Amino acid sequence: MLRRFQVFCSGPEGSQAQSVEAENRQQALDWARKTYPGCQCAAVDAALVDLAKTARPGWGGES
Fold it and tell me: Is a pLDDT exceeding 60 seen at residue 9?
């Protein structure tokens, strides 16, 4: 079953944030490393990102 992940990558050309669908966190990371070679990447379950935005209004760009 596919789940949504927020992928964050930082490298020589700057930072990227992308929402991807994958079966698990490792697949999301593998996609990010292929898409943004040479970058440091992290993947977070999007449900956790949504929960953090709900718990802390203003976190993540909303005001």
Answer: yes
How big, in percent rounded to 5, are the helix, strand and coil portions of the chain?
35, 40, 30
Long-range contacts of 31-34 (CB under 8 A, 24+ apart): 31/7, 32/7
Has this prediction a pTM greater than 0.85?
A: no
Q: What are the residue ranges of helices labelled H in 1-63?
A: 25-35, 46-55
| C-alpha–C-alpha distance, residues 59 and 1, integer Å | 29
Residue pointed to by tokens 């970058």: 39
Q: What distance in Å separates the CA atoms of residue 19 and residue 37, rounded to the nearest whole number? A: 17
